[in-house]
Amino acid sequence: MKSTLDKNIYGFLELKKIYLKNYFYGLVFAILFHLFLFLSLIFLTQNESQEMIKEKLQIVNYVELGPPPSIIENQINIIKENSKPTFGNLKAAKKGEETSDFETPKESKPVRDVKVEDSKLVEKKVEAVDETYYVSVDVMPEPFGGIEKLQQNVTYPDEARKNSIIGKVFVKAFINENGEVTKTEIIKGLGFGCDEEASWIIKNTRFRSGKKNGKPVKVQMVIPITFHP
What we know:
two-stranded antiparallel ribbon
């Protein structure tokens, strides 16, 4: 029994030595490994910081500019005329004759008085544009083809058909001197799409111009549009 106990103690000591040895090696390896990681991290961060600094740095070359160009003021050259006036051949004047500074050419003709006529001012009369839409004129506007054809172009709205709407829409039309309808106003309507249809039909209808004193004028007139199925 004593020998068995000695063997167990000896085995325990051997295991303890092996454990301490392995523990030491493991500790050294762990320290070296962490030291390697730490140094690698420092090295990488330094490289990245240097690259960032290189990217941010910009080299600016300064070029020295020369002196500004001189400003030359515009000089005005003054030309002096040295030419002398020429005269005709001077002759010695005899006693009792009038003298003259120059000789009159033989072919010269006496200068006559020139009459200047006053220019006549031509006044142009500017005709004023009449913007009045007359209610009553000598010849009232009339649609081409007559009121009957205008009525034939009317489309009975579906909404009015569904609600059995029957009646007339009274539209005031403003017709210019060219027979064109410039605008419309609903005097009395039926609704249900009838007012819009009546206004659209009249706006798209061409009229014979109304006349006053033989001249085309602007006219306003009320036109009834009938709606029925």
